[in-house]
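Both lines are retained for reference:
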Amino acid sequence: MVLMVVMGSGVAQASGNPETTHDPDVTKGPCAYTKTPDDPAARPVKLPPDPRRTPSKGKADVLLKTNQGNIPLVLDRAKAPCTVQSFLHLVTKKFYDATTCHRLTAYPTLKVLQCGDPTGTGERGPGYKYKDELPTDLKPAPNDPTGERRIYPRGTLAMANAGPDTNGSQFFLVTSDSILRPNYTVFGTIKPEGLTTLDKIAATGIAPTPDNPAPLDGRPARPVDISRAKKGC
């Protein structure tokens, strides 16, 4: 999922009222978090706060405690202030606690672990969406005939999405340099301890299916369960 925001000097600016007072389906700040009635929340959660002066400086630590080891993250408000604000809101509301990371990929050009859906299906989210905050500083992918693809480097924390401006709760952790179009919001990095955990997860591989004994995309062979996500490390 992903998002767009107008940046001012150190803050994301918006005109009009900052709170969700007159229209409870869309927040009135610069992030414009929008309810998705056709895709209700996998767990009950309100729209995130959306102040006019959305913090767009500084970093925040989040720790994912998993059964495979800790994955500490560093969120970067300067890269994606609305995404960081939403992610911290979901962490605070325990949205990610007792969830399973549903997807592991092992393609030559795409190696990620995807998490963030409490149903474990990869089809649900928090009952709201928001716009893209797309990266502009990723290096071009070598030998790409289109010139469009970029390198999402190992250790990147980014949002999954279902198309433009559909960020929600699902996110992915890049275990090795991956080649993608720059259509996914980058909002932080993974600390070395977390990369060690991810290497362990990647080494166990992907669960085979009746149709494919050695898939390159699917559920981790060993379940990756987030027992708790919390601020700080």
Q: What stands out?
A: Residues 1-23 have pLDDT under 50 and may be disordered.
